[in-house]
Amino acid sequence: MQITVEHRPSYALAVVALDANETVVAEAGSMVSMDTHVQIETSVGKKGEGKMKGLMKGLKRMVSGESFFQNRYTAGGAAGEVTFAPTLQGDIDVHELNQGTFFLQSSAFVCSDDRIEIDAKWGGAKTFFGGEGLIMLKATGSGPIAFNSFGAIKELEIDGSYTVDTGHIVAFEDTLEFSISKFGGGWKSFLLGGEGLVCRFKGRGKLWIQTRNSSEFGQLIGGKLPPREH
Fold first, then answer.
1. CB 111 within 8 A of CB 86
2. What total of structural domains would you count in the chain?
3. Which of 18, 60, 159, 224 could form a disulfide with 120 if both were Cys (CB 3.0 to 4.6 A apart)?
């Protein structure tokens, strides 16, 4: 399987080239186009793992902001191509896992190799006020995984410590430790319109951030919309 990205950075499209009988897993509703012979299966979990386990995975995805169901696209009998795009305008990047662990912002997952397990990871009570930091997706296994951002993606190599606003985190490797804390003037600054909360990373590893904050953008647009008529 190969995942390439086209139309970067504002309107990115993930193009997945599948060998015969290969399967790519994607967020429901993200498919743009595909070869006619590619077969689609909608489910909450993988085959053979049990209904209860699949149900729990689906519920955890819902809590994290993802879809209850996932779609599996298999190129039956011959090589095929499937393309995917996120809902928000922005970029897509691809990371190759090799029996490793990778953390994603709750809405960043686009698609991945079927060998990769996607699970919701509770970030802890401290992250409640961090918006996107509340729940992260945990990806484990081997193969490529594509993830999206709101705005452009900037990849950083961290060696030491680094601070990021919680709304700008896209993904990071599990070699980085992180903690959520107040920024600047403390809770008073946060409540009265300050920078709010930030994530402080420590260690060595890769970190991906986005140039726009979807929560802040939503609040800006929401405030300008006309009131609903009852």
1. no
2. 1
3. 60
Tell me the torsion sign for CA atoms 220, 226, 67, 59. Answer: positive
Residue 16 sits in a domain whose CATH number is 3.60.160.10
137 closest CA partner among 97, 109, 114: 109
Joined tokens for residue 155:
């990849």
Provide the residue count of the chain: 230
CB 183 within 8 A of CB 189: yes
148 in Cβ contact with 193 (< 8 Å): no
In tens, the pLDDT along 111-126 reads: 999 999 988 765 544 4
- Residue identified by tokens 């896209």 is 170
**Domain range enclosing 15:** 2-224
